From TrEMBL:
<dbReference type="Pfam" id="PF12697">
    <property type="entry name" value="Abhydrolase_6"/>
</dbReference>
<feature type="domain" description="AB hydrolase-1">
    <location>
        <begin position="7"/>
        <end position="228"/>
    </location>
</feature>
<dbReference type="InterPro" id="IPR000073">
    <property type="entry name" value="AB_hydrolase_1"/>
</dbReference>
<protein>
    <submittedName>
        <fullName>Pimeloyl-ACP methyl ester carboxylesterase</fullName>
    </submittedName>
</protein>
<dbReference type="InterPro" id="IPR029058">
    <property type="entry name" value="AB_hydrolase_fold"/>
</dbReference>
<dbReference type="InterPro" id="IPR052897">
    <property type="entry name" value="Sec-Metab_Biosynth_Hydrolase"/>
</dbReference>
<dbReference type="GO" id="GO:0003824">
    <property type="term" value="F:catalytic activity"/>
</dbReference>
Length: 239
């Protein structure tokens, strides 16, 4: 591959772009170009279009990295885009056509997210959802220092409930045609670890890294492990 690969990081629900700060610092040290693009968290199809525009603006080969709901977004955004050469899922959904985040979460036991989410009506019949700030640390980021988790709780971006229930649009999701890598923790309380394993194995991932004791906020608590897997993907795809 002649042009260098750029990593585009896509945050998920109840997070925002600064959740990638530790990972970006490590990628930069390794000489890997990386940007975190904002994710509106309104709908899979609309959010994917936002990522497509970011990829187009880079003008070279890209590895898309998605966290949580961001995995559904990159799965759609990469479809039929020749600039995208690989996918990295960080505690993330990798839905098949017709699946959605809510259904995949409930398919396997272990998620306690529903008990901590608070809805706010938007006036169009849909709702914005946030994780209760007082419960955020234990639910979302149990292995992150309490002071840091408190900041995450107060900077989280709400997600529209429609986005979590929207069926994956593309008939052939991108993980069926592109190489993928998966990293997640076995103490994830948002997406059941059994579900994360299922999606990684179904995708035929090049590598699956499961981190003992890591929470859903694995990119914050374990930036070295996440960055190392991304670097592995970039180097393999650049060879």
């Amino acid at each position: 591959m002649s042009a260098p690969v750029t990593v585009v990081l896509v945050h998920g629900a109840f997070a925002e772009s600064s959740s990638w700060s530790g990972v970006i610092a490590l990628l930069t040290e390794a000489g890997v170009a990386a940007v975190a693009t904002p994710n509106p968290l309104r709908s899979v199809s609309g959010d994917a279009e936002n990522v497509r525009r970011a990829v187009e603006g880079i003008g070279g080969p890209v590895v898309l990295v998605g966290h949580s709901y961001g995995g559904a977004v990159i799965t759609e955004a990469a479809v039929d885009d020749p600039a995208v050469v690989g996918l990295v899922y960080v505690a993330a959904f990798a839905p098949d056509h017709g699946e959605n985040a809510l259904e995949l979460t409930g398919r396997f036991p272990g998620s306690t997210l529903g008990e901590t989410v608070r809805p706010y009506p938007l006036g169009d019949g849909t709702h914005d959802l946030v994780v209760d700030r007082d419960l955020f640390h234990g639910q979302f980021a149990a292995d992150v220092p309490a002071a840091d988790a408190a900041i995450q709780a107060r900077t989280q971006r709400p997600i529209r409930d429609f986005a979590l229930g929207e069926a994956q649009p593309a008939p052939v999701p991108a993980w069926k045609t592109l190489p993928s890598w998966f990293v997640f923790g076995d103490a994830d309380k948002n997406i059941p670890v059994e579900g994360l394993r299922f999606m990684a194995e179904r995708a035929g991932a090049v590598a699956i890294q499961e981190i003992a004791g890591a929470s859903h906020s694995v990119m914050v608590s374990q930036p070295e492990a996440v960055a190392d897997l991304i670097i592995e993907a970039v180097r393999k795809l650049s060879a």
